[in-house]
Specification:
Blueprint lengths: L5 E4 L3 E5 L9 H5 L19 H8 L7 E5 L7
Antiparallel strand pairs: 1-2, 2-3
Length: 77
Amino acid sequence: MELDRNEYINREITVTFTPKKCIHAEKCAKGLSRVFRTSVLPWINLDGAETNKIISQIKKCPSGALDFCHNPVKIPA
């Protein structure tokens, strides 16, 4: 079974990876190797850098295989 999409979530963002779109340019791993790790699973570790750095690196993905959205803010009751 091949997954079409993978999701990785932290408190601030949800990162999605669509393997079928990936061209394996490795810009993500070369630019932010503490987050985008090619030799371990899960290969995306959102604790590896600040969210703004992760977002910046995702925006450099040439194929669009990586994407993100901001998570809704939960207001305490």
